Structures
1.
Amino acid sequence: MVEKFDAIVIGAGPSGNAATYTLAKQGLKVLQLERGEYPGAKNVQGGIMYAHELEKIIPDFRDDCPTERHIIEQRIWLLGDDNYIGTNYRSESYNSDTPNRYTIIRANIDKWWGERIRKVGGLQICETTVTELIRDASGKVIGVRTDREGGEIHADVVIMADGVNALLAKRSGFQGEAAPENVALAVKEILFIDPELIQQRFGIKEDEGVVIEIMGKVTKGMVGTAFLYTNKESLTIGIGCLISDFKEGDCTPYKMLEDLKNHPVIKPLIEGAEMKEYAAHMIPEGGFKAIPQLYGDGWMVVGDAAHFNNAAHREGSNLAMASGRMAAETVIALKEAGKPFVAGNLAAYKKALDDSFIIKDLKKYRELPGIMHANKQFFGAYPDEITQAAHNWFTVDSVDKRTKEVSIMKSFVKRRSVFGLVGDAIKLVRAMR
Ligand code: FAD
């Protein structure tokens, strides 16, 4: 006899964990399946974890959640060849009892989620890959098949939280292949380093953290960003660019990361650190226009598998947790009302998403991916011009300031033309509004 659950959740990343925890806490019979040897074994994140969404799901998460440092300072840097221009935001208010963001190491966090899920009665099984969705004669999803012997399991509803590849939705015809310009490939390293050095180099106390988001010449004109985050006893450094750009160019992600680590501005920050872990992963960056069908008879899709990622703000895990929670709340409401899990009823999930920051934010930046992909000057010419202009402006060399202004302007116009500059400004406004 095939075992039946109220819900099956595929994947133990932040979206699947949020869904499973929410369902189990409400007393539903839920099974979570994860292909990794343990939760987090297959997962890659920079990573910053945003507390607000997690707090909604597990209000007391700070009691035992293995976070690294709470972030008190955010830096945004535009790198030139040997320089950078940037901005910092630092606030003592982030030193409160309820900090807003933390650096994390995913393997630790995902294991912790597993413990919390078990405590509220959820069943999480690892080393089990879901190979396909099972559908009845009408096409409704009624369960999953796994790579285990006799691995057929049934449920009222299946929540796909299987990450950016979304293989199950694709295999079932619910999603098409993602275009290479809609997906970034990111590589990162965790570098082990003495905590004292982290504190000295970044101007922080024990437990305080700094994160640096990086753009500019390190992506070699490709659409992409880099990052450097402070953990307790390590630094996380990474870089990612669109797959379509990697295909066209001849630079490998690994070479790009090596160049980032050797950049004169970055090198002194990581000097003496030893590589602990290397990982590569994809990030869905197509934004609003790349969102697939989100629900159907007996199924919903959440997190990266639903292409929920706000590349402009480098937010992914919070969208994942929020969408997982909303999918679970939809299931709970239907269960309580005794309604069937058909598309018409699961549409409530889409309504919740539409009313939330997820769809509102992705809609706001709907033109951004297309504009960035088609206008590489934002990742090549402008970082070059801006960092050179800063160098010119801040170098005291007895050239009068008016002459400096004129030479900076001339350099921009020579590179982009007046029409080009005006056009680029309009494009930027369109991309951000
Ligand atoms: P995932 O975390 O990818 O989890 C999917 C899970 O499903 C995995 O555990 C996988 O093993 C499992 N799975 C897949 N297929 C199957 C199957 N068939 N059967 C069983 N299990 C399966 N976000 C942030 O908020 N802050 C950051 O700083 C940040 N930095 C990032 C840095 C990098 C380099 C990358 C790659 C991403 C970063 N993100 C960041 C994005 C964030 O990691 C994702 O948005 C988030 O992990 C999505 O969660 P998810 O649960 O949807 O998917």
2.
Amino acid sequence: MNYSYLIVQEEGSVLSVVLNRPKAMNALNNGLLSEFNLVLDQFERDPGIRLLVITGEGEKAFCAGADIKELVELSALEMKAFLSLGQRTFRRLETIGKPSIAVVNGVALGGGFELSLACSLRIASETASFGLPEVRLGMIPGYGGTQRLPRITGKGKALELLLTGKRISAEEAYQERIVNVVAARDTLQTEVEQWSETICRNSPVSIRMIMEAVDVGSHLSMDNALALETNLDALAADSNDKREGFAAFLEKRNPIFEGK
Ligand code: CAA
């Protein structure tokens, strides 16, 4: 597959995608989002791929958000279509049943920050920064930022970022539990590899069930969420992964999971 806006590479169980518009700070345009959906098709269909890693090309940006130049002239209806494409794409990423890591290697602003929030985990380089500047543009975050950020960091900090539009450092994002880990630029790749290896060694069946329990459960009452957890766990119990996991424990060896 030839991509114009992405660099896509498969390495073992990991599919890596690089947002490749460095001259525009890797801003999200229609073409990039459409291509990203093709990557999600591959991610979803190929059982050998267990993890998606997303980063930005170049030294400066993970992603500076929606392409402002493409948005300037849009009518309300065109804007609705553009926003809904991004929302559907990010929701698909979040609920696809396999984990994703945003490797935030520079600025993550607006839709770029929102893309990282739709990923399962965020690893930031120490030079990364995060912000939702839409309030300075007369818009609001339209790719889920008003919903995902408060769920991750809490309402108080989310409103601070949403209402001021200010940028925070990777270290502050870590303190606010927005990112999982901060790494120096020269150890970033090693850090990503370590997280990837750990996750890819685990049971894909467990991971799928955990992701559904956390996502769907967060919208339910505690009683209903616990019932969901029981049902998903019971479903996992009928998998080859569970048989392999238990057998490996009893035989004192490492399990080899197939995701079935
Ligand atoms: N869309 C389109 N082009 C962008 C862009 C964006 N979001 N962000 C940066 N660029 C372009 C710049 O226009 C510039 O292009 P030219 O060379 O053709 O002029 C190029 O990238 C380099 O940018 P700068 O010269 O500004 O570089 P800098 O290092 O001084 O600043 C920056 C970098 C802090 C990222 C700054 O460019 C910036 O603030 N960008 C806008 C960020 C923003 O407001 N994002 C929100 C977008 S709206 C959104 O995302 C809505 C939503 O929720 C869906």
3.
Amino acid sequence: MTTTPITPTGLLPTLPGPAYTDPATFLREQERIFEARWFCAVRAGDLLTPGSFRTVTVGRENVLITRGRDGALRAFLNVCRHRGARLCTEEAGQVRRTFRCPYHAWTYAPDGRLVAAPNLKDLPGLDRSAHGLIGVALREWLGYAWVCLADEPPSFEETVIGSVSARLGDDRAVERYRPADLVLGRRVTYDVRANWKLIVENFMECYHCATIHPELVQVLPEFAQGWAAQAAVGHGAAFAQDVEGFTVDGSGGFGRLPGLADEQDRRYFATTIRPQVFVNLVPDHVILHRMFPLAPDRTRVECDWLYAADVIDGGADVSASVELFHRVNEQDFAACERTQPAMHSRAYAAGGVLVPTEHHITEFHHWVTSLLA
Ligand code: FES
Ligand code: FE
């Protein structure tokens, strides 16, 4: 790389260790971040048929997302209005017509209406319209359903689209890859024993790339210098000259996605979308991570590899491109898991330091602490 995006000024502090372990801090993050802001929940393409559903953890709530007979996606708190049983106990599935509570069989339509209950005739006073499922705000963007538990959701444009790193060039840079039109080629779910902020910080920096990502550095040699692609304004990272595609062995990938300009060819771009999404953009596919923070020291990560429909429909073997970032994920998450136990240590009570290639992480720390203040 020719430009240095941040003037080296020495060392900056990290957050103190307890920020990654303290249950009270995690509770505040659940309340003020995951339950208060838009949260990327599910891939819309996973729910193609009426009655298909997924359930996901958002903050302290479990949210049911389903497609109605009218084709619309809707989200609800996954709680039966009778005595509070979890309505849908599976992570994913398909109902024929209705959701039936496993406890006393109150039954709800995919649009949330309470449509039946046993011995309803004994309950003449039950106002069914007042006992439907509690709805949750939902927006679709980039092919994903984003939900917001707040009574008055903040502006999606400002808080989600506006959080796409300006360093990609512009807010709409991710849309140029048209992830909504792409098809899921592979999904891997990782159960990471680390705080969600350690995972964000790790994704934001590439100081570790030379140490733990030998395959990635082969494809993106400038990463060996430690400057992350998202710290470089609109620049991305160039593929190595002898590499044909973003694959584990440098073999050729697939055709360039429609709509991409020459500037995006043979380059890798990355961004975070707050609070819990990472996007990796390469010419022939998009990799999108959604994090589900479950506990101070535990985060579920779903990683989707998305390709052009004709690649997947044609039965192409995507394993060489999946394997590259799957290895990166395993290397990154192992590093985060190695860090997590030490967050309890007296050695880290006041935190650690950020070197210049990591200074942009401070912006993330400021964002979190300002929301928790
Ligand atoms: Fe669901 Fe009773 S708790 S029907
Ligand atoms: Fe990494």
